[in-house]
Write a structure and sequence with these properties.
CATH class of the largest domain: Alpha Beta
Number of strands: 17
Number of helices: 22
Helix content: 40-55%
CATH architecture of the largest domain: Alpha-Beta Barrel
CATH topology of the largest domain: TIM Barrel
Largest sheet: 9 strands, mixed
Strand order of the largest sheet: 1-2-9-8-4-5-6-7-3
Oligomer: single chain
Structural class: alpha/beta
Radius of gyration: 24 Å
Length: 586
């Protein structure tokens, strides 16, 4: 049985056996509880509504239209899907726009178009040509394993949408409801999540995925309570009443009145505590900076409204995507300055330099052929490899950051992604210093995203590196050898795993020994209970989606540093991610 669902089978009041992955609840004779990973702290109740399923496989019959007509229909369907994805992304903004832009680029992949054309030229219908081409690519990506296999779910979603358009029927997607409901799905495509109506969708429940899946990330950004990876939950029929408790990561089908009242009361108390404002700190006064993850100036208003003390992760990739040339120096200066000038004096804005490679290939940063890009030339490696042929792109970015920071009020810090050892960190610090950035003042640092960088954080921080920020999303996937975008291993992609927590603890201890700050900018920082554990492991800044800041602030304010350290110690000694979460909550 997959991790995330309780073992055993339940028996309802009729004596029928419940589905695998569920347990009978003592609160009501016919209640069934499913366990997954919660996103948020709210508890809500409502009827289930299931996602619409894609069309069946198109029949392999000769096309009735001409070859040219079928080819044009297929290409038009792919173009319509790409345009629809971009429109949804533009309407949603933030992290959603980034995810949907990546999907739109997949729909426009020239190799896919070549495959579709070859099949329509052979007499296939547009829908069948799309199906066969995407099926071939599905098999290819799945066979590659690791990072590339994570693209399979996105590829399948694009195929389903394109086949629907080519067949002249609506794209698969959200149920048509006029009353509030709990959305239930195997998993949610980013394009569907972007269109959720917050007035109708009370909560999200998925059978697949993990805490860093697209569904979890976008649900957190939108402030929608969710439980992901709840195995067995697809057995529920439409309109089954459920209680979704994001704080405990449980979905209770047919809940008793007492269970609903208790969960809602606790949820209301948590919401009241989250209404507090001010800087992050524990109840005994230990300062923990609460920062926001942003992709550009459009995300700043939400960060300021949430009371963010600055930015812990300014993703700069959006500047570089969908272009054959890197942005000019002047264009970069304007974008960076728009963000910097929005924050007051004393705030901190941490800029991550371009994270090229893996799922973000760029034509002007050539990396050669790679069988496994996630383990290839990615992040800082892209600018050091090949005798520095790509270094000019990074150098221009650092110069633009320096220029934009020169007249801005906040403290501008810069960090490099995918740094694994001392030589890489020193190389980056040397380049940053040559570009005029404040290396001596401790404002040039690195991201800790691999076990190697966590385990050697001591020597790295003993040098010129001024700080480290732990990217728990990548650190978890590399520690667990589990692609964070692949639903089949979503249960393993859990930052609560003791192996991940121990690596965070090693980095935290290195930061204390060197008297240099350690932060977290992965999705783990947005989990209120895990945030307290991270503080107990030595982390002193947490960067997250703005919608999570209030809950994390409230969680820290209710606990002393000693309590955080005790919870961290209990989680550290656990055997599994689930055990660690339960030990910390006890």
């Amino acid at each position: 049985m997959a991790d995330g669902a309780r073992s055993g089978r339940s028996t309802d009041s009729t004596g029928a056996s419940g589905p695998p992955g569920a347990n009978g609840s003592p609160d009501a004779p016919d209640s069934i509880e499913y366990e997954g990973v919660g996103v948020g702290t709210a508890a809500v109740a409502g009827p289930v509504a299931r996602m619409g399923r894609p069309l069946p496989e198109p029949a392999d019959v000769p096309a009735t239209g001409s070859v040219g007509d079928e080819r044009a229909k297929a290409f038009a369907a792919l173009a319509a899907v790409a345009a629809d994805l971009r429109a949804r992304g533009a309407a949603a903004g933030g992290a959603t726009a980034d995810v949907l832009e990546a999907q739109a680029m997949m729909a426009e992949d020239p190799e896919l178009e070549d495959g579709v054309q070859a099949r329509t030229d052979a007499g296939k219908t547009a829908a069948r040509a799309i199906h066969e081409t995407f099926a071939e690519f599905h098999a290819t990506l799945a066979a590659l394993g690791d990072y590339m296999a994570g693209r399979v779910a996105d590829l399948d979603d694009i195929a389903a949408r394109a086949i629907a358009v080519a067949s002249g029927v609506p794209m698969p997607g959200l149920p048509r409801r006029t009353e509030p409901y709990v959305l239930l799905a195997a998993d949610l495509a980013p394009a569907d999540t972007a269109l959720l109506d917050r007035r109708l969708v009370l909560a999200l429940v998925t059978a697949e995925g993990g805490p860093t899946s697209h569904t979890a990330i976008l649900a957190r950004a939108m402030g929608i309570p969710a439980v992901v990876g709840a195995a067995g939950v697809l057995a529920l029929a439409d309109d089954t009443p459920v209680l979704v408790d994001a704080a405990t990561g449980t979905v209770l089908a047919r809940p008793s009145t007492e269970a609903m009242e208790a969960a809602v009361a606790r949820s209301c108390a948590a919401s009241a505590a989250a209404a507090a404002t001010g800087p992050g700190r524990t109840s005994d006064g230990t300062e923990v900076k609460l920062l926001a993850n942003i992709g550009g100036a459009d995300d700043v208003p939400a960060a300021l409204a949430a009371g963010a003390e600055g930015v812990g992760l300014f993703r700069t990739e959006l500047l570089y995507l969908d272009s054959d040339q890197p942005p000019t120096f002047d264009a970069q200066v304007k974008v960076y300055k728009d963000v910097f000038d929005a924050f007051p004096e004393g705030a901190r804005v941490v800029v991550r330099t371009l994270d090229a490679g893996a799922d973000k290939p760029l034509p002007f940063v050539p990396l050669g052929e790679e069988p496994n890009p996630a383990l290839g030339v990615r992040g800082l490696r892209a600018f050091r490899a090949f005798d520095g042929r790509n270094e000019a792109v990074l150098r221009t970015q650092l110069l633009a950051i320096r220029e934009a920071a020169g007249t801005s009020a906040p403290e501008v810090w810069v960090m490099a992604p995918m740094v694994d050892e001392v030589t890489e960190a020193e190389w980056f610090c040397e380049l940053a210093a040559a570009c005029g950035l404040d290396v001596a003042g401790g404002r040039v640092g690195i991201m800790v995203e691999t076990p190697a960088s966590a385990l050697t954080a001591g020597p790295i921080l003993a040098g010129r590196t001024g700080f480290a920020s732990i990217g728990t999303n990548d650190l978890t996937q590399y520690t667990m050898a589990a692609d964070r975008m692949l639903g089949a291993v979503g249960a393993l992609q859990d930052p609560w795993h003791p192996a991940v927590l121990k690596l965070v603890g090693v980095a935290g201890a290195a930061g204390r020994a060197a008297d240099k700050p350690i932060g977290v900018c992965g999705e783990a920082a947005a989990d209120p209970l895990l945030a307290c554990v991270l503080v107990g492991l030595g982390v002193r800044s947490l960067s997250m989606a703005p919608s999570a800041i209030a809950d994390v602030r409230a969680a820290l304010a209710s606990r002393t540093l000693r309590d955080c350290e005790a919870r961290a110690a209990r989680a550290w000694e656990a055997a599994t991610a689930r055990d660690a979460r339960k030990a910390a909550a006890a």
